[in-house]
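For this section, I looked closely at a protein sequence along with its fold in token form, which I now present.
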Amino acid sequence: MSSSAPLHQLPDADFYGFEDLLSDTEKAKLAELRRFLAEEVLPHAVDWWNEARFPSDLLPKLAQLELSTPVQQGYSPLFAGLVIAEMTRADTSLATFFMVHHDLFVEALHVFGSEEQKSRLLDDARALRITGAFALTEPEHGSDVAGGMSTTAVRDGDTWVLNGAKRWIGNGTFCDYMVLWAREPETGHTRGFLLDANLPGVTRTRIENKTALRTVQNADIVLTDVRVPAADLLAGVESFDDTKQLLQGSRIMVGWQAVGAQLAAFDVARAYAVERLQFGGPLAAFQLIQQQLVQILGNAVASTGMLARVTELEHGGYPVPGNEAPVAGTASGDMARAALAKSYASARMRESVALGRSILGGNGIVTDYRMAKIFADAEAIYTYEGTYEINTLIVGRDITGVSALR
């Protein structure tokens, strides 16, 4: 027997009430974000995706939400994660832009920037008056970029001269600045730069023919004798290990994207199952369809629980009764926890979006019904910030003491 209750009266995908853990202020802010996404993003996101067009005119409105680096503003880590999940729920591409700009570029300014660099760039970056990118991956070096970085930085008086290439740089076609990583040949040290993307010698080419995140403007970057002022060397970066502080946090945020993709899959698949009539009744009346919806829901709830906990650990360590200060893990253990959350949630996401696509049948392979877009974008989430395999091996190394990475 089918339910007569309208969709808005049915339980949503936050089946275990994680949002109840937020403060009243955070709940109100999350509701404001949802209204913005419902009005400004959801009606247009499929068109942006189909046209591979980034909605630059949306940025001033997005900036008005004042959600840049929420934890830096005093919001809880859980709230910061749910912001990314909600953005992904509406449009994975917009969430990816937001993460690259705020969780990597702006966060790098917070963590590694000098007072002069912060004074010069931080306010404009937080308000999206300038946009940023994060340039680490190279054409021949993805997961192994730590040991194989080819981009070089050579000191020459009051400037650094950069040569090399970067690939898959989100926001790379239009950004004003990039946090760019290069190796100093003489010492082997990794340096970070606040690279003005419009300097002579910087060539940016959009990567075409993508089947995921089509709204995101990924770029190939070529650097030919680019002279960067010494004042734009990131003051707080001493080695490649410093990048891990940023990547660990962004890896967790990509895990939250995997949560958001599952919330989107549940929303679309459940609505379709309740409203689509077949064999004289709604699809939702069939046991196999209910089983698939419950599997998507279970995957989403499990992923949310894991991400909620690892986000808490990232920002505070283990709370121990009787101790005033929580006990944090080792640096390698922290990264392993982030890697497990990202790999597990992205694997559950892959299963969830496949089930959702199946529920929609043939309508699941056209973007008109949103599910095809959700399904395709999930493949990017599964791959970036460490592939499923690489993240798995990071955890394996931590729990065995033996590295399978070469």
Notes: The first helix runs from residue 24 to 41. The radius of gyration is 22 Å. The CA atoms of residues 59 and 66 lie 11 Å apart. The chain is about 50% helix and 15% strand.
